[in-house]
Design brief:
The chain has about 210 residues and is of the alpha/beta class. Helix content is about 30%, strand content about 20%. Its main location: membrane.
Length: about 210
């Protein structure tokens, strides 16, 4: 039997990229969204990759979500994964000021440098709102950053799953509402991003980068 026959049918394949400092909870967000579970995980080594099939906006979608390492030594390694991404999720930890500061100092600059889709949709996510007593970055600061850099914005908690689903759904709905991102080979199987697999030495299990 053809192995492809067992895969769900879909209208579009979207490539999403998660970026941000090490320890902000990117991998935990991804695990919470794709598996409905939460674990305190060790940092990602290189890049991780998961697939989720969803029905959003009346479309059947295949989401290929890349979870990149936040450590500086992996920056050149992960830069190639920006290629062809229709959506980028910028994650910071609301309890760690430097992870928010680095959004403009490091991560926004990387998007400008490496992203190949001019209309790529950006989502700013403030994670770990379950630790409200430890919060040092206000929601207002997140809103202002999102306005300045043209991002969607949500605060969430990978641990309690508050707004995790909404984060990915709002991003995907905006992609669906952007015609240029639907006409560059995203339809059906014509866009095969699975040729961009991580080198063997970079593969890792899911982790909270």
């Amino acid at each position: 039997m053809d192995s492809s026959s067992s895969q769900p049918e879909f209208d579009y394949l979207f490539k999403l990229l998660m970026i941000g400092d090490s320890g902000v909870g990117k991998s935990s967000l991804l695990l919470s969204f794709t598996s409905d579970t939460f674990d305190d995980l060790s940092p990602t080594i290189g890049v991780d990759f998961k697939v989720k099939y969803v029905n959003i906006g009346g479309k059947k979608l295949k989401l290929a979500i890349w979870d990149t390492a936040g450590q500086e030594r992996f920056r050149t390694l992960t830069s190639s994964y920006y290629r062809g991404a229709q959506g980028i999720i910028m994650v910071y930890d609301v309890t760690r000021r430097e992870t928010f500061t680095n959004l403009s100092d490091i991560w926004a600059k990387e998007i400008d440098l490496y992203s190949t889709n001019q209309d790529c949709i950006k989502m700013l996510v403030g994670n770990k709102v379950d630790k409200d007593s430890e919060r040092v970055v206000t929601k207002k600061e997140g809103i202002n950053f999102a306005r300045e850099y043209g991002c969607l914005f949500l605060e969430c908690s990978a641990k309690t799953r508050v707004n995790v689903q909404q984060c990915f759904e709002e991003l995907v709905l905006k992609i669906l509402d952007t015609p240029s991102l639907l006409t560059e080979g995203s339809k059906g199987l014509r866009k095969n991003i699975f040729t961009e697999k991580p080198p063997q030495s970079d593969a890792s299990t899911s982790s909270c980068c």
